[in-house]
Here is the input.
Amino acid sequence: MGLGSNEPQKPKKPLADISKEKAPYVPASIGGKNMIGSVIPSGAADAIAKAFERLREQHKKDVLDFVRDELGYSSNEEMLSDFESGKTNGLAAEQVDAVALAISAMKSGKSFIVGDMTGVGKGRTAAALIRWGKKNNKKVLFITEKSKLFSDMYGDLKDIGCDYMPFVTNNDTEANITDADGNKLVKKPSKQAQSALWQSDSDELPRDKKGRQYDFVMTTYSQASNPRTPDAKKKLEWIKNYAKDAVVVMDESHNASGESNRGEFFRDIAKDASGVTFLSATYAKRPDNMLLYALRSSMSETHMSQGAMLQAIKDYGVPMQEIMAAALFGSGEMIRRERDMADVKTTWTDPKVIYSEEEYEQCRKTSDRTMDLINDIIDFQRDYVNPIVKAHEDEYNDANIAATILGANQTHAANMSYKSQVSNVVGLMVYAMKARKAAQMAIEQIKKGFKPVIAVENTFGSYIDELEDEVKEAGFGPIFDKGVKFSLKYTIAQYAKGDDGKYHKVKETEQVYDAEDELDEDGLRALKNLRERIEKHLADNEITPLTLSPIDYIKQAIKDAGYNCGEITGRSYQLERKADGSGYRKVSFKANGKDAARKFNGGTKENPMPESEQYQCLILNSAGATGISLHSSKKFG
Here is the structure.
């Protein structure tokens, strides 16, 4: 529609009112000083309220009395947290409610889903269900995503008054149970003790070297991934047998599903358990997650095959998942709350407010000129490399036609467009431009007495992984060098006809070639000019210097300001500036989440850390931070 047109304007769609999508959660058990304070999807409030009404009618008790009796507490005071008095151990009202519905569902032969978001306390809920299983003389199996989460569960059990001894199936160092200071509380069983249990074919847990009886089993989903050794296979057999008629608590349960052998293994465990509860804030992360939950829930009463149910979820997407969730809310087989973030201020700041006019203009030039160079690489590949690849493909054309008739292998030349790499390069560019300002803002907050947390989506660690052990510069040079090499690369490989009638690459026949050796004079001249433009760009004083590793830049800047910055990510290497300033060294890196969180939290109330040993800032991403507690708490120093 042009300017001055008389065409009627399409009315703007009103923005959704988030406040109407969520309602304050009113606990069915108890409120006031025992509440965390959470909200619930507005559409689920009535269904969940009715589920609690049915629970009261079925068990002839109030929710609070039902949970207290089922868990074996002598009084409400013993069981509950009291946030007014500062008693943070025990169960909050939201957790009591979840436990009530989970126990009621499991007593009825159904499964239960705790879909609570971070901060509502899924760990305490899981601990209470472990306690319930033990009180009822059941075998108990706790499964989670990573072995470092074992210590968190042990702590949650302690906080609700349970001194249980877990038998851990994992062998990595993080499988040891430690406290907030990193002190070892429960040492994982030796490999010999583990193997002896697998070979015993008994589901009765042994005693440790000190004669103490193990009470329940802790394991991770990864234990079911590609067992290769006889002992690993025997371990899986033992876990599967132990799970029969056991109370199974699946934490981060979205990791348990799928159409793979691993998914089938955990579906069998859920099916054979006495009772099973799933806990995950992202419980429906993928369509095939719902297959796991359908086994023991009311969804199984649809009498649909797993394949038909999966296809229906894929076909109808999120609306179908919302319908299924609503049905589970109504049947008392699911609950989902989140912390009330109404008082949390989120500020989206215009870059022109954060940056000075000079800094903003410099960032704009950096972006424009870097994108010009990226487009130069794309153009070079299109104009000089693609014709070489096409010429090779044309050479095989006649032979491939004959191969199609005879059913023989075909040969093809191919390359991948550099455009496929641009998204990552641009992402790193934007991140690198922000690094200096992010460091400055973090330092400002530290000076004001705050402890900033810098969350990143991507570490871009693969670029560092490919570097030599030592480099002179930590700028964008390697990124552009890699881009040029990528644009020159092509492959020739054979393709075999598969059972589906289509041709598929035979990976072992693939050969990689460098088109630089085949460039004509114009191509060689263009390549030389491209490399000269890269050198000129890297020496451009009008643009923001781009760092290859923004995380290390930020950490170094904070260190230079006299503060300590920790990191919780999953990357394998970091760039470390040499002491003499002559360059950078690639150093192996493995984040210790527990230790970083402990230093950021300042130790514990009982054992506070000196300021000089604490982290004043923390950088994290989702890959490294799962299960790490950085909550404001009286437990911390």
The radius of gyration is 29 Å. The first strand starts at residue 22 and ends at 24.
